[in-house]
Design goal:
This protein is α/β, with parallel strands linked by helices. Helices cover 43% and strands 14% of the residues.
Length: 291
Amino acid sequence: MLMNPLPWPDGHRCAVSITWDVDVDSGLRYAQGDKADALAATLSFVKYSPRVALPRLMQVFSALGLRLTFFVPGWVIENYPAAIEQIQRHGHEIGLHGYMHERSNQLTRQEEAAVLEKALRAYEKHIGGRPRGWRAPGFAFSANSLDLLVEAGFSYDSSLMGDDVPYVIQGASGQLLELPTDWTLDDWPHYMHNRDFNYTMPISAPARAMEVFRAEFDAAHRYGAMWISVWHPFLSGRLAKLHAVVELVDYMRSKEGVWFARLEEICDHVKGLHRDGLWQPTIEQLATDLP
């Protein structure tokens, strides 16, 4: 079923990476501007992330013995330092997710470059070093994103949806490893019901979403692919939904040969295979360099 299967470490059958996008109120403020402060109920909804969900996630995944990847906007890094410190203290990876959850494909190249630089400065100041991974807010990867990310020294992106296994995206400035996901593994279309975000998805039990997440995992496990969640603490960090996540992890662990890894670990594995001549990634040429 896979066009370009790759060997996973130690004979594992598939790779699973549980990742979270920690937007808090950045996206709301970017979309609503000064109006956001008047949206008290929605602010409480998104601030559930640092107040309740993130401490809960740290406790739950520490008990499960798993380290994860969190994508965080630069503005959130600046404004929620205690939450960032928790993520770091528990050994999780932190990647970048824009500065204010901007839609990159709605910006000019100059604007996108300025946003990226601002996000990088926030990361360096509050976390230290440079992030290895990037996920475009709203998956809004632009025609300029690849070259800007290559020039900034990123190791991988996880915004695109062009394969079931890692592949390489090629631009004018060089190459970047792509660790693709898919909307089916995003909790937003399953759970988001909030008029201030202009999303009113039908409300249903977490079991409905888990049917989709589990079906995608079963296929990845059967055929040797990669499974990457895109979850938000203010959605999937709530009680019933996180309980279902724990049950899903237990189900995954009941299967043989599942490699649970941070995205940076998958990146290192793939690049090692390529370096040693054990696997050659598919390369996709992207249209780049718009004004």
